[in-house]
Structure formats: C-alpha cells, structure tokens
Write a structure and sequence with these properties.
two-stranded antiparallel sheet, 3 helices, 4 strands
C-alpha cells in the first residue's frame, strides 16, 4: 500500500496500515517492500480494508497491490515457505 499525494516520506502513513495488520492478531510479516498476512479469506480482506481506511484517512489517494496465495489446508505458510528455502540453501 502506498499513500499518494503526501510527498516522498511515506513511512508514517505505511505505519498506520501496518499497525492495523499487527493489531489484527493474524500472522504477518513486514519487510522493506510488502506486508504479508496469513488467515482465512474474510479475515484477511477485513484487515486489508481497515488498513486502507487508516491510510485513506490521512492521504488523498491510496495505491494497493494485493497478491493472494489460496491453498486450502495450508497453515503457517509465512514461516514454512522460508524454512524450505533455507533448508535447500544449507545443503
């Protein structure tokens, strides 16, 4: 998510969105480019909607990039996918 029309320093606006994600209680991870959230579809979409609203409250325009990996029965994908790559790297 990127606030537009607020200048180049957008960290405080992004922090508003990340705060919503972290307070949701859903598994999540934030890096330099993205915030990943794991959960049931409706739960995650509710968090996304609230995160957008938090930024929208302070920015005149919000750009959102959303990617979904829908795999029924898979849990803990945020850490298990990384663990698999790390395992291959250590071989």
């Amino acid at each position: 998510m990127t606030p537009l029309g607020v200048g180049e320093d957008v960290g405080e606006y992004v922090a508003d969105a990340v705060r919503v994600v972290r307070e949701s209680g859903l598994p999540n991870r934030t890096d330099a480019m993205f915030t990943s959230v794991e959960g049931e579809w409706d739960e995650v979409m509710d968090v996304v909607k609230r995160a957008v609203a938090a930024v929208e409250a302070r920015a005149p325009r919000v750009s959102l990039v959303l990617k979904a990996d829908i795999r029924p029965g898979v849990t803990d994908g945020l850490t298990s996918k990384v663990a698999t790559v790390e395992r291959h790297l250590s071989e």
